[in-house]
Amino acid sequence: MNQLNYSTGSLVSPQANLVIVLSGPSGVGKDVTINAMKARAMPLHHIITTTTRSQRQCETNGEHYHFVSQAEFVRMINSNDFLEHAEVYGNYYGVPKTMVHRALALGKDVLIKVDIQGALTIKKNLPGAVLIFLAPPSLDELARRLRIRGTESSSAFELRLNTARSEIEQFSLFDYVVVSHSNRIENSVNDIDSIITAEKLRVTSRNYKL
Hints:
By secondary structure, the protein is α/β, with parallel strands linked by helices. The protein has helices at about 30-40, 70-80, 95-105, 115-125, 140-150, 155-170, 185-200; strands at about 5, 10, 20-25, 45, 50, 65, 80-90, 90-95, 110-115, 130-135, 175-180.
């Protein structure tokens, strides 16, 4: 808990470092938002997710994801290496527990990008995590972004859009909602920055036990 020290006129703030979880439906703009946050040099340690998904041409291993085989992923599950893991659209994704633990131990705020299912699992395993739901302005706009991305077949496109509808209904399980406008990414980053500032000023700090 923050303490006011009137003898020195200062605020003693032993606020725990934050675990920020950014989530939202596929195609909402999570990567674009995170890239804008990086460009602004926001002081956050970005956790890289491990996945069995095939690497896309625009992706770099160790930067966008850690790409591993399914056998290696299963080994990591059996070793209890993940804070959360799940199967999404036939591929496995997991957040390495040690990476989060090391960053917090070094006094860093952590940013984790996961899908809705993963975010809620982290909230269960790590109640102090701050969950931010990145929402599209509308479903029509989300569908437009998915079409432009062009990384899915027509059947996969419909699956992602239908999944997005059900995921958006779960936004009330999150701590904050930020609307992602494709032509106003800086506004989304400003909102997230404001959330982090507000969390830093909490009277009662969030505690993390991994």
